[in-house]
């Protein structure tokens, strides 16, 4: 029996398992293979759909997350996939599998965080499902969104010579996770954290889905491809590269490094680049834009107070490559968070 691998499984799922005809008949515009699916809705707009799961011990544990954070992040990670399509979020269904030892007060806290996120980003919670779980809590969110017909921003449209951008600092969530796992203190509240660690822990517990950035990119009509960073920069750059059949060259000198991340890495003897490339759960948007449109987008982002960093370019040599400070270029593998590895 061959070993299970998440990327290989998704590649397998991506190979036509249904006839083009059936998918077309049911209005599928984009099926498996992007951050969310797009289907025909009404004449002017298309429906966007996504679902992501959080499993206790895999995505969180009592040392890393408070109950409110679990609810908040479960929805925020789904919102991030809607942002990565340039869509506007709408309705959510929540599926919970609960082990016997969970109390109702813990579940109320999870829902408090969930509704906090839903209200902040104007999502209506319209239902869900509940069952018992043998051991661990499992929360799955299905989220819909709406996008103007045929305008959804896909991973598959990057063009050679585009520049690669990201909407914020990367690696902070992984550093926050590292801190929390080392600290080994259950239910550690933010109030108990020193100021110098708070931004990292906050990035891990309460990622901010880039809804405004996604809409700005779509409305500008100047963004070629877009992906959100759940598994790390390396992995998501590979997804754009594979879907668009182009290569990506990341310039190490241009990668923005949050000062708190740098300070924490110095303290614990870790490399910021490792967490940036392979850490994941940053939920920033990674995309490409033609060189002539970079200045325009930079000024639009600046006016909205959203970061917009250029960190590389699209090239015609397949794969993802990184250029270090000495000008040496090496290939980077599709590594990052991979369930089953
Ligand atoms: N079990 C599954 N059955 C069918 N399609 C799936 C399944 N799991 C994932 N997919 C599809 O594979 C594609 C990639 O999914 P993936 O979960 O890697 O993307 P993502 O949600 O952007 O990333 P992440 O889960 O790391 O946040 C999507 O189109 C998704 O709908
Ligand atoms: C306790 C604990 N251990 C490890 C991690 C790291 N982690 C888990 S899933 C994932 C990728 C995103 O998930 P998905 O691909 O399912 O969307 C990452 C980086 C964590 N969050 N908590
Ligand atoms: Mg995604
Ligand atoms: Mg997913
Ligand atoms: Mg993943």
Automatic annotation (TrEMBL):
<dbReference type="InterPro" id="IPR036921">
    <property type="entry name" value="PurM-like_N_sf"/>
</dbReference>
<feature type="binding site">
    <location>
        <position position="155"/>
    </location>
    <ligand>
        <name>ATP</name>
    </ligand>
</feature>
<dbReference type="InterPro" id="IPR006283">
    <property type="entry name" value="ThiL-like"/>
</dbReference>
<dbReference type="InterPro" id="IPR016188">
    <property type="entry name" value="PurM-like_N"/>
</dbReference>
<dbReference type="InterPro" id="IPR010918">
    <property type="entry name" value="PurM-like_C_dom"/>
</dbReference>
<feature type="binding site">
    <location>
        <position position="81"/>
    </location>
    <ligand>
        <name>Mg(2+) 2</name>
    </ligand>
</feature>
<dbReference type="GO" id="GO:0009030">
    <property type="term" value="F:thiamine-phosphate kinase activity"/>
</dbReference>
<feature type="binding site">
    <location>
        <position position="129"/>
    </location>
    <ligand>
        <name>Mg(2+) 1</name>
    </ligand>
</feature>
<feature type="binding site">
    <location>
        <position position="81"/>
    </location>
    <ligand>
        <name>Mg(2+) 3</name>
    </ligand>
</feature>
<keyword id="KW-0460">Magnesium</keyword>
<keyword id="KW-0067">ATP-binding</keyword>
<keyword id="KW-0784">Thiamine biosynthesis</keyword>
<feature type="binding site">
    <location>
        <position position="50"/>
    </location>
    <ligand>
        <name>Mg(2+) 4</name>
    </ligand>
</feature>
<feature type="binding site">
    <location>
        <position position="231"/>
    </location>
    <ligand>
        <name>Mg(2+) 5</name>
    </ligand>
</feature>
<keyword id="KW-0808">Transferase</keyword>
<protein>
    <recommendedName>
        <fullName>Thiamine-monophosphate kinase</fullName>
        <ecNumber>2.7.4.16</ecNumber>
    </recommendedName>
</protein>
<keyword id="KW-0418">Kinase</keyword>
<comment type="pathway">
    <text>Cofactor biosynthesis; thiamine diphosphate biosynthesis; thiamine diphosphate from thiamine phosphate: step 1/1.</text>
</comment>
<feature type="binding site">
    <location>
        <position position="59"/>
    </location>
    <ligand>
        <name>substrate</name>
    </ligand>
</feature>
<comment type="similarity">
    <text>Belongs to the thiamine-monophosphate kinase family.</text>
</comment>
<feature type="binding site">
    <location>
        <position position="281"/>
    </location>
    <ligand>
        <name>substrate</name>
    </ligand>
</feature>
<feature type="binding site">
    <location>
        <position position="35"/>
    </location>
    <ligand>
        <name>Mg(2+) 3</name>
    </ligand>
</feature>
<feature type="binding site">
    <location>
        <position position="228"/>
    </location>
    <ligand>
        <name>Mg(2+) 3</name>
    </ligand>
</feature>
<comment type="function">
    <text>Catalyzes the ATP-dependent phosphorylation of thiamine-monophosphate (TMP) to form thiamine-pyrophosphate (TPP), the active form of vitamin B1.</text>
</comment>
<dbReference type="Pfam" id="PF02769">
    <property type="entry name" value="AIRS_C"/>
</dbReference>
<feature type="binding site">
    <location>
        <position position="230"/>
    </location>
    <ligand>
        <name>ATP</name>
    </ligand>
</feature>
<dbReference type="Pfam" id="PF00586">
    <property type="entry name" value="AIRS"/>
</dbReference>
<feature type="domain" description="PurM-like C-terminal">
    <location>
        <begin position="160"/>
        <end position="322"/>
    </location>
</feature>
<feature type="domain" description="PurM-like N-terminal">
    <location>
        <begin position="33"/>
        <end position="147"/>
    </location>
</feature>
<feature type="binding site">
    <location>
        <position position="81"/>
    </location>
    <ligand>
        <name>Mg(2+) 4</name>
    </ligand>
</feature>
<feature type="binding site">
    <location>
        <begin position="128"/>
        <end position="129"/>
    </location>
    <ligand>
        <name>ATP</name>
    </ligand>
</feature>
<feature type="binding site">
    <location>
        <position position="52"/>
    </location>
    <ligand>
        <name>Mg(2+) 2</name>
    </ligand>
</feature>
<keyword id="KW-0479">Metal-binding</keyword>
<feature type="binding site">
    <location>
        <position position="337"/>
    </location>
    <ligand>
        <name>substrate</name>
    </ligand>
</feature>
<feature type="binding site">
    <location>
        <position position="35"/>
    </location>
    <ligand>
        <name>Mg(2+) 4</name>
    </ligand>
</feature>
<feature type="binding site">
    <location>
        <position position="111"/>
    </location>
    <ligand>
        <name>ATP</name>
    </ligand>
</feature>
<keyword id="KW-0547">Nucleotide-binding</keyword>
<dbReference type="InterPro" id="IPR036676">
    <property type="entry name" value="PurM-like_C_sf"/>
</dbReference>
<feature type="binding site">
    <location>
        <position position="52"/>
    </location>
    <ligand>
        <name>Mg(2+) 1</name>
    </ligand>
</feature>
């Amino acid at each position: 029996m061959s070993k299970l691998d998440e990327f290989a499984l998704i590649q397998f799922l991506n190979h036509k398992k249904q006839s083009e005809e059936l998918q077309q008949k049911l209005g599928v515009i984009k099926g498996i293979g992007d951050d969310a699916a797009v289907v025909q809705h009404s004449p002017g707009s298309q429906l966007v759909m996504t679902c992501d799961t959080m499993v206790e011990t895999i995505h969180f544990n009592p040392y890393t997350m408070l109950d409110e954070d679990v609810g908040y992040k479960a929805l925020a990670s789904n919102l991030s996939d809607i942002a990565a399509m340039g869509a506007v979020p709408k309705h959510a269904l929540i599926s919970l599998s609960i082990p016997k030892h969970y109390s109702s007060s813990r579940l109320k806290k999870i829902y408090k965080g969930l509704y906090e996120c839903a209200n902040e980003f104007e999502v209506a919670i319209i239902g869900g499902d509940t069952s018992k779980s043998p051991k661990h809590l499992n929360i799955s969110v299905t989220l819909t969104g709406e996008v103007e017909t045929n305008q959804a921003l896909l991973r598959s449209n990057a063009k050679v010579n585009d520049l690669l951008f990201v909407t914020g600092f990367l690696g902070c969530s992984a550093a926050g996770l590292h801190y929390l796992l080392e600290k080994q203190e259950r239910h550690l509240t933010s109030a108990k954290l020193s100021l110098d660690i708070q931004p990292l822990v906050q990035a891990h517990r309460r990622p901010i889905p880039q809804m405004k950035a996604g809409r700005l990119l779509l409305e500008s009509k100047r963004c070629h491809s877009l992906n959100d960073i759940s598994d790390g920069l390396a992995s998501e750059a590979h997804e754009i590269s594979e879907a668009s059949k182009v290569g990506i060259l990341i310039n190490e000198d241009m990668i923005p490094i949050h000062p708190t991340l740098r300070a924490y890495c110095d303290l614990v003897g870790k490399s910021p680049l490792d967490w940036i490339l392979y850490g994941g759960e940053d939920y920033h948007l990674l995309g490409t834009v033609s060189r002539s449109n970079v200045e325009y987008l930079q000024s639009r982002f600046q006016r909205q107070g959203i970061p917009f960093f250029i960190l590389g370019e699209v090239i015609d040599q397949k794969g993802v490559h990184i250029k270090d400070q000495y000008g040496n270029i090496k290939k980077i593998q599709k590594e990052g968070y991979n369930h089953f590895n």
